[in-house]
Amino acid sequence: METSLGLCIGIGLSAACGFRVFVPLLVMSIAALIGWFEPMKGFEWLALPSVCIALGIATLCEIAAYYIPWVDNALDSIATPAAMVAGTLSTMAVSSGEMSQFAAWAAAIIVGGGTATAVQMSTVAVRGVSTATTGGIANPIVSTAEWIGAILVSILSFLVPVLVVIVGVIMMIWVVRWVRSKSKNKINPSAL
């Protein structure tokens, strides 16, 4: 059960990394400092006050940069691989000691990195649509929703990890169905 719970927390944190790279790492650092969780061996650095301060500064810079027109789109090209790395590290940091190192890293890369990348790619698509349809005017609204989502998902991942995963799966199914219906309408305009 401890392994499953760790993976659920990791999946939630990884999804949050797809919204904002540094927010989940900051939440993890704060959680480690206040005793909500103990990072896995090798990730004790998350519980250092200096790391928490550095992550706080990085988080503020990342959030602020997404409010600068056109910089937000440029950041997406950097944020996509960074989200994968952050999602992998987030999942690995909360993994239980029950798994072998190989299994833990494999799960972190596949589940954590994959989740973060999938969420990040969807935010890139949303920002692209926002830029194309509004000339970037609506991008600050998208940015605000993303960082608020990152904070909420990060905190809820520690409080109700299984619920976060269930809601995440439901949302992904809904998004896939929505995209499929939109693509069918573009292909067959008479279906409207």
From TrEMBL:
Q: Which UniProt keywords apply?
A: Membrane, Transmembrane, Transmembrane helix
* DUF4126 domain segment(s): 7-179
Q: Where does this protein have coiled-coil stretches?
A: none
UniProt keyword Membrane, yes or no = yes
Q: Which domain of life is it from?
A: Bacteria
Membrane-spanning parts? 12-34, 46-68, 74-95, 102-127, 147-176
Q: What is this protein called?
A: DUF4126 domain-containing protein
